[in-house]
Amino acid sequence: METGFLFIMVFGLLFLGVPVAISLGLSSILVIALFSSDSMSSVALQLFTASQNYTLLAIPFFILASAFMSTGGVAKRIIRFAIATIGHLRGGLAMASVLACMLFAALSGSSPATVVAIGTIAIAGMMQVGYSKSFAAGIIANAGTLGILIPPSIVMVVYAAAVNVSVGRMFLAGIIPGILAGVMLMLAIYVVARWKNLPAEEWKGFHEIVEGGKEAGWGVFLVVIILGGIYGGVFTPTEAAAVAAVYSGFVALFIYRDMGPLKEEPWIDQGRSHRAVVGFKATVYAIAFFFIWLILSFFAMGEPGVTTIDFRAMIGLVGVVIILFVYPFWRLQHGMASQAVGIDGSSAYVATGTVGAGVLGQIPGSLAAGLPIWGRNLRLMTVRFFPALVHDETRKVMVDASKTTVMLMFIIVNALLFAHTLTAERIPDAITSLMLDYGFNWFTFLIAVNVLLLLGGQFMEPSGLLLIVAPVVFPIAMELGIDPIHLGIIMVVNMEIGMITPPIGLNLFVTSGITGMSLVKVVKAAAPFVCVLFVFLILVTYVPVLSTLIPNALMGPEIVTR
């Protein structure tokens, strides 16, 4: 009777339009008050315990990092890199949009944020070169769902907190499925592109890939910091989230300068000589290499007894010296050679031959000439550091992130109270016994889980649905021998599909908003690519090695105590 009353209350309140958090919390309190032997003080104790969950502290930091990285400049840089990489293929601009969504997903951990950031730029670009508006909208709506599958993912943190599994293993488990989903979408686009003879972008050479990579590198390096830091043992997932938030804010305010008092302030002001610009860029690349080397080498070789920080720093300094010599020599030689071409072939040869000797003497002067550019930028960053922290745009990002955090944490705390009620009344045990009595095995159970989540995903927000379903199905899955990390990835993929299925698919509404298309047209546009994600769901469900290979190899299997 308690089971029926609890679920009737939850879904009845949801049907009446009551917010998810209140539906879960009120239903749980009524069950405890009317049927349970627990006292009402257990409600307060559970709410306090849930609010002290260390894992959940990662969520507000990841939300803040996503808010900073959702500025238009980051998305533009990622799209440029993606187009330079695969835009020359048939249907390349559409495939580049998928790749851009994959890269941005690794920064934001949010599907709607990915759709907004990439979609507002990519859809207009695709339409300009001949793609239909519906085709472009369908691609972005589907590719945006990768925001919750490719780590770091907020939904993965929610699942880990709900069932008490490792956030790190969940992040690792999402790597192969996330890449596979993106590749499957790109293959589907390529087939359609060959069939419909969609345009290909001009191949601009490896130079454009390098330039695009340099621009996008500051943003994409966030993924290296988060994942490398966690699996290199530098910090926990919660600490990684805090580092990500600080790094994202610093990059947005002071490196990319897409917001705040330094907005549109160039790093290199007009009137600087070619020699000064080359010297400045050489020192930038050298310093960036040194810190990237220290971070990556620590992740790879920082175990006690393997290497020391002094040894790794010495290797890094060798690389710095090489960069400070090679880059100015190359750029200055190229500049001098282009200016010193003679009238006939022989004079051109002589001029070019004398360039190398002259360049060597100019390298120290070039590096010194770049120092005033450094001085100007460091002075600007110092003077405007505190104004940047309280700037209107910074405050707006912080307020928006806070609103999202409060909403999500209120849902999570009430959902954990719901999970406590389920456990106290032994409801999962009763459902497990019932399903085993009816002959369910792991294969048929996963079918039932997928059907339940696909139906629920049409009507509920992903985190809310996951928090309701996970405490119920998790004990059953453990009884049937299903890997808890594999189960988590299955649930996340179902949440993906739920975000692009009507009537409540959030990505559909977001895509409709940025394109001006009706919801019905967006649903029709997204439908063909949803079929690809259904095939992907089947693969993830019944090929568990896709989810468990990397986490088991690097961290070992998840141990669940019953």
Automatic annotation (TrEMBL):
Keywords of the record: Cell inner membrane, Cell membrane, Membrane, Transmembrane, Transmembrane helix, Transport
A Gene Ontology molecular function term of the record: transmembrane transporter activity
A Pfam family the protein falls into: DctM
Localization (cell): Cell inner membrane
TM spans (from-to): 7-34, 54-75, 87-107, 113-131, 143-165, 171-195, 216-234, 240-256, 277-299, 311-330, 405-423, 438-457, 464-482, 488-510, 522-545
Membrane-related topology note: Multi-pass membrane protein
GO CC entries: plasma membrane
Subunit-level organization: The complex comprises the extracytoplasmic solute receptor protein and the two transmembrane proteins.
Name listed for the protein in its UniProt record: TRAP transporter large permease protein
Organism: Fulvimarina pelagi HTCC2506
